[in-house]
Write a structure and sequence with these properties.
Subcellular location: Cell membrane
Number of helices: 24
Helix content: 55-70%
Structural class: alpha+beta
InterPro entries: ABC3_permease_C
Number of strands: 13
Distance between the termini: 36 Å
Oligomer: single chain
Organism: Leucobacter aridicollis
Strand content: 5-15%
Radius of gyration: 34 Å
Keywords: Cell membrane, Membrane, Transmembrane, Transmembrane helix
Number of domains: 4
Protein name: ABC3 transporter permease C-terminal domain-containing protein
């Protein structure tokens, strides 16, 4: 208690001491709040995934296929809009439709609703229910049936999630794409172990700059403390008492800042929840941190600050005159490069094995270990590299600013590199995220003529197999009667092998040979009138063979191959698709979509335009993680700005005496400014290319290793250069702040005892 009282008296009586303590507390508060937000975001990511993946096939979630039979203890589930399957849409808004077939006595619990809906019933999420209530029924509401309730948060990705849980017959759900039989409905926190590892690596990537920020702010005013502690030593205090005072002086504001950081976390949580990922915000309750984690973060930060201060004071060995002279740092050794080199080897090894296709199993944890080694290695290797470059530069410097700056870096490599370490880590993290996101290319709707791909606004749906032909025709007639529908195009699939077995291929093959000089393969078949409606020229033929990619969402760069086909060959085609052309009005398209869904047509998927299929072609989970990567870039950049500003200004305050002596001896302020520029720029320039290169290597290794070699990365677009420019601009802004400090923070009091 006496030590605490003495420490408080000394700190409060020190000129600017209270401001320094407040600065430490404020910096720790920001750091702890960001730390808790990162932990909360990691938790929320898993929770959101678990709430939205329950309809997926068990084989996808567990890798195992169970032998089940439809009954009271099982149900059929078919989700749309997942894993590349087209979803439901209204006016461009994606709607996830989960079709469920359950017996009236079903005992299977469905997340978010009271009971499994029966045919003709549905539950809607709050956002979808509001949309349905404000939309004509024949454009949206009729396609689901009778609403019997609202889906609860337990089954929603976020507040804006458009979800409909629709009841249907087992015969209608079973042929749908992605349909599976379930005895239990539960989601998974991460789609695959690889995604879980990516989330961990991303969280650690953001945590490192936060830890550096906390480390920097807890050392605010270190030189002032050193001078004051030397005074205490002069009046008889033991080194251990001085170390105790240093620890208490660090613990108290750090603990106050940590507690304030917890409050700040709760204050900014509603704002953080506004971040939109995959079309929906977070629930505020998603961003929760377990109480034990919160206590550990707060107490751990304060305890760590105290231990570092205690150890530093003991190791420094302050004497009665220790505060009046700057002490030289221990020279960095070459083995500080070992973690960096080892990390590069460890993280690259699994990627090389995967890229080479070698049958060698390398644990995914190697990627995590390699990433941590590289990140820590950058901080450890930076001082050695900066010292080596400065010694080389000092021999060639030809002006006072250069000589002073180089000599100071060589004498204090850790202190000078510490001021830019946050920016270096941010540069590394930004590079990793920016390059890593290139693995997911967002496809754009191909603007091509109707002779290359099906018209972009035509609704296309896959037909179910083994459907009653007469019933299908009656359903198509109901679709054709919908208001705004111009034409219903029936598309068959011509299989040359099957047709050949039936003895009909010869006719088609002969026709093709006349048109193209080569035999026909598998392709689509439409009548001449339907081909004309699609924008294709059938000539004088009654039927037209169309190359397979015509109904895909991706451009092929040329007109599609077509060939005339005889009626006999066309008769062997199997009904495969239905394409609905409307008058182009948005309401007409939605009415046609509703008519297809409610006509009784047996389909394997929901109707979608080519634009909507393009949107569904990208995997949902990859897009989600790309969104998170850009949030990580934003956080890392902001933290680097704060840490660089704090460390640079704090360094100037700590060096008031040395800079004051230089000014007192007649050195111009302009020379001091050039010296400061060199001191800040050289450590950053020394590791710039190395940091960027390691960022590229890390991003490539993570993507290739965790995808088993299926994915790769490319060079990032010009936006990456903009991010680099922002980081360098922040460094320039911090230096400008220091320029002002050079003139205002060098009072005569700093050198009055010289």
């Amino acid at each position: 208690m006496k030590a605490l009282t003495l420490g408080w008296v000394l700190a409060s009586r020190e000129r600017g001491g209270s401001k320094r303590l407040v600065g430490i507390a404020a910096g720790v508060a920001v750091g702890v709040a960001l730390l808790l937000l990162v932990i909360a975001a990691y938790q929320a990511l898993g929770d959101r995934s678990a709430r939205s993946t329950w309809p997926l096939d068990s084989a996808f979630k567990t890798g195992q296929v169970a032998e089940l039979e439809f009954g009271d203890d099982t149900l059929w589930v078919a989700p749309s809009g997942m894993l590349g399957a087209p979803g439901d849409y209204y006016d461009g808004q994606a709607i996830t439709r989960v079709s469920i077939a359950a017996t009236p006595q079903s005992t299977v619990a469905v997340p978010g609703i009271e009971r499994a809906p029966q045919p003709g019933e549905y539950y809607a999420s709050p956002a979808l229910a509001a949309l349905i209530d404000g939309t004509p029924a024949d454009e949206l509401g009729d396609r689901f049936g009778t609403r019997i309730g609202i889906v609860g948060p337990d089954a929603l990705l976020g507040p804006e999630t458009m979800l409909a849980i629709v009841g249907a017959d087992a015969a209608a759900v079973e042929p749908m794409l992605g349909a599976s039989l379930h005895a239990e409905l539960s989601g998974v926190r991460f789609p695959t172990p690889a995604y879980a590892m990516i989330a961990i690596v991303g969280g650690i990537a953001v945590l490192f700059p936060v830890v550096v920020l906390i480390s920097i702010v807890t050392k605010l005013g270190q030189a002032a403390r050193t001078e004051r502690f030397s005074t205490i030593r002069l009046i008889g205090a033991s080194p251990r008492l001085v170390a105790m005072l240093a620890a208490l002086e660090a613990v108290v504001p750090a603990l106050a800042g940590a507690l304030a950081g917890v409050g700040l976390f709760y204050a900014v949580r509603p704002l953080a929840a506004l971040v939109e990922i995959e079309g929906s915000r977070f629930f505020v309750s998603d961003l929760a941190v377990p109480a034990w984690a919160m206590i550990a973060a707060a107490l751990g930060t304060a305890l760590l600050a105290g231990l570092v201060a205690f150890g530093t004071a003991l190791r420094t060995g302050l004497g009665p005159l220790g505060g009046s002279r700057e002490q030289q740092e221990r020279r960095p050794r070459w083995w500080s490069l070992v973690p960096l080199g080892l990390g590069a080897v460890v993280i690259a090894a699994p990627a090389v094995v995967a890229a080479a296709g070698l049958d060698v199993r390398v644990p995914d944890v190697a990627v995590l270990v390699g990433f941590i080694l590289i990140t820590v290695g950058l901080v450890l290797a930076g001082p050695w590299l900066a010292a080596a470059v400065s010694r080389f530069g000092a021999r060639r410097a030809n002006d006072a600013a250069g000589v002073l700056a180089m000599r100071r870096i060589a004498r204090h490599p850790r202190a000078t590199f510490r001021s830019v370490s946050g920016l270096v880590l941010a540069l590394f993290v930004v590079t990793v995220f920016a390059v890593g996101t290139t693995t997911e290319i967002v496809d754009e709707v191909a603007d091509v003529p109707a002779t290359e791909l099906v018209p972009a606004d035509a609704l296309v749906t896959n037909l179910g197999f083994e459907a009653d032909e007469a019933e299908q025709e009656r359903a198509l007639a109901r679709v054709a009667a919908a208001d705004g529908v111009d034409r219903v195009v029936r598309v068959g699939w011509y299989d040359d092998e099957t047709a050949g077995a039936d003895g009909e291929q010869g006719d088609a093959g002969d026709a093709s040979a006349e048109a193209n000089g080569e035999a026909l393969g598998g392709g689509f078949v439409v009548s001449a009138a339907d081909a004309a409606a699609l924008g294709l020229d059938a000539g004088s033929a009654e039927w037209l063979w169309i190359e397979q990619p015509y109904f895909s969402p991706f451009e092929i760069g040329r007109d599609i191959d077509t060939a005339p086909m005889t009626a006999a060959a066309a008769a062997t085609a199997t009904p495969a698709l239905v394409t609905v052309l409307t008058d182009g009005q948005p309401g007409s398209r939605e009415r046609a979509r509703t008519a297809i869904t409610t006509s009784g047509l047996t389909v394997a998927g929901l109707p979608a335009t080519r634009a909507e299929s393009t949107d569904a072609s990208a995997t949902r989970f990859a897009r989600q993680y790309v969104s998170l990567a850009w949030i990580g870039i934003l956080i890392a950049t902001l933290i680097s700005a704060i840490s660089l500003s704090v460390s640079t200004v704090a360094g100037m305050i700590d060096r008031r005496r040395q800079l004051g002596l230089l000014r007192l001896s007649g050195m111009p302020a302009a020379t001091l400014r050039r010296m400061i520029v060199v001191e800040t720029a050289l450590p950053l320039a020394t590791v710039f290319l190395l940091t960027v290169g390691l960022g590229f290597l890390t991003a490539w290794a993570v993507v290739v290793a965790l995808s088993g070699g299926d994915r790769g990365v490319t060079l990032p677009d010009v936006g990456y250069l903009g991010l680099i420019g922002i980081c360098l601009g922040l460094a320039a802004a911090a230096i400008l702040v220091v320029f002002r400090t050079v003139r205002s923070e060098l009072p005569l009091a700093a050198t009055r005892f010289e």
